[in-house]
Write a sequence for this structure.
């Protein structure tokens, strides 16, 4: 079976605070994008996970997914899983979570297991905070630690340029730095309103990411990269997730294509994607 593991971006990310269990309460708007890993999964005598374009760690989200399903449900089979990676790592694009969600769905289909979505999401949050969203895989308001998902009206498609430098951002350190300074909050309701109204100008004005400032403190060169992109005239440039990917928005696709040509020389992963 061949499946796609679709990346995501954050159009809004607000940190509400830290919970007693150590996780952070978040309020976000997340959307799938047209960038994905290809995954091939087949029944095999033993579990075997391989990858083109990168190394799969021994405790990857795919390993966690198989272990959890084997423990909680009981699987009849073992699987050979091969990942062709296109989503860059440490990018704020949920590549590993997308892999987990895709494998989760594929294994459930092969095994003939039918679970209610609520139960699937309960299992998914044990694998990783972004895995529940990646299972739903639709433009959504996402809250809690990522398990509270409200799907928003579909149909509005946006294009943006993803620019991801060679370095990543440590998510735990980004949260630590967020706590160490005066908190920056994002009006996620206003971002949702802009999406509901399909108002591109308002969306560009209201989008925000509370982790962007901490990420720039950790990597000043990421702020410089944003400034270089802004100098190209983008309507808005913003970081996705905890970084280090930056999203550049133009209303006109021809301007986006021209900007891609100019960004290719920045020694970064550069790709135009469709959001939604």
């Amino acid at each position: 079976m061949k499946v796609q593991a679709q990346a995501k971006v954050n159009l809004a990310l607000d940190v509400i605070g830290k919970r007693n269990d150590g996780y952070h309460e978040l309020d976000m708007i997340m959307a799938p994008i047209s960038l994905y890993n290809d995954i091939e999964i087949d029944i095999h005598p033993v579990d075997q996970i391989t990858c083109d374009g990168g190394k799969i760690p021994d405790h990857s989200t795919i390993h966690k997914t198989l272990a959890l399903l084997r423990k909680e449900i009981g699987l009849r089979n073992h699987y050979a899983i091969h990942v062709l990676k296109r989503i860059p790592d440490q990018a704020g694009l949920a590549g590993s979570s997308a892999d987990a969600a895709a494998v989760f769905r594929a294994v459930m289909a092969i095994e003939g297991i039918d679970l209610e979505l609520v139960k699937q999401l309960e299992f998914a949050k044990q694998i990783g905070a972004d895995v529940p969203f990646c299972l739903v895989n639709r433009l959504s308001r996402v809250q809690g630690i990522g398990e509270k998902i409200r799907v928003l009206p579909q149909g509005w498609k946006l294009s943006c340029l993803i620019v991801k430098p060679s370095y990543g951002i440590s998510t735990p350190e980004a949260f630590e730095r967020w706590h160490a300074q005066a908190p920056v909050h994002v009006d996620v309701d206003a971002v949702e309103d802009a999406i509901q109204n399909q108002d591109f100008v308002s969306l560009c004005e209201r989008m925000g990411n509370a982790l962007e400032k901490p990420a720039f403190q950790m990597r000043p060169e990421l702020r410089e990269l944003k400034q270089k992109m802004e100098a190209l005239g983008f309507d808005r440039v913003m970081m996705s997730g905890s970084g280090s990917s930056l999203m550049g928005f133009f209303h006109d696709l021809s301007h986006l294509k021209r900007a891609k040509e100019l960004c290719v020389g920045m020694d970064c992963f550069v790709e135009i994607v469709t959001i939604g």
Notes: The chain has two domains: 2-151, 158-275. The radius of gyration is 19 Å.
